[in-house]
Every structure is written in C-alpha cells, then in structure tokens.
Give the backbone structure.
Amino acid sequence: MGRIFSFLIDLVYGALVLFFKFCRWLFLGNKKVNYGEMDGFEFEQHCANVLAHKGYKKVEVTKGSGDQGIDIIAYKGGEKYGIQCKYYLNPVGNKAVQEAYTGISVHQCDVAMVMTNNTFTKGAREAAESTGVILWDYVPRQVEPYFFGLFKRVLLCSFLLLVGCIIYYIF
C-alpha cells in the first residue's frame, strides 16, 4: 500500500510540474536560445525561425556546404532575400558582407543581408553601406509568441489548472 501511495504522489507531482511548465510556456510563449550551446547550423535554423516570425515567407535554410555565402533564402514584400548568418564571439568583419553581396548574384536574389548574434566592425558597416547589404546585429535570443492570443492563453491555462486540481483531489 505504501509503494502505491508513493507512486501516486510522484505521479501527481510530476503531472503538476509538467502542468506549470506548460502554463509558463503558454504565458511566456517564447523560446529562449542559449547561444553558448549552439553551433553555426543551429544558429542558421534560429535565424530562419526569427525571419519567419518577422513576416518573411518561404524561409529556407540552404545546404551546409557550397552555399556560396548564402545560408537562408527568404521572401518579403515581393523581394527575394539572400541571408548570410554569422555566429561569432567577436564583431563580424566585412568579409561576411562581401560573401553575402556575391552570394545574391549566384542565388539570383534581390537583397543581401547579414545576420549575427554579435555586432559589426566599422569596415563591415562601410562595406554594407556602399553595397546595399542589410546588417542585422544582435539577432534576438527569443522568438516572440504567436500561437495563442493572451485571452486564449489565460482561458486555456485556467481550464488546465482546474483539471489539475480535480486530478489532485481525486488522488
């Protein structure tokens, strides 16, 4: 009898922990990214996710090798964007701007962009200004919520809390 009771307590505790984590996800709704645990490919995936949430359409990560300086292809406002992603500990130099500028002709894009988790050097900013490459520094570590509106989240969380309380009192 003691083992069954202990198992039920653990089960209810686990269910409540999952419930509260789910509610936190519903209310916060954002995915925090730890840049320290990320490689370049994962950063490209994260940038693609950020672009999709910012209204870019048909966001596609190119193949890893031989991408000719373009890591992501995306569309917005009738224009095709070629995006170079740089996951660096130091500011990004003008080589990334040159790669993106060259890459848009290979991929037949209209606009070149470089995204980074860091910032850009003065040389990179000057090169971007003269070539028309868009620089996006400090890519957000969080993707803003979009799945539920606030009212729906509150309603769903309240319902789940009620169900959790009922389950808790039954056991």
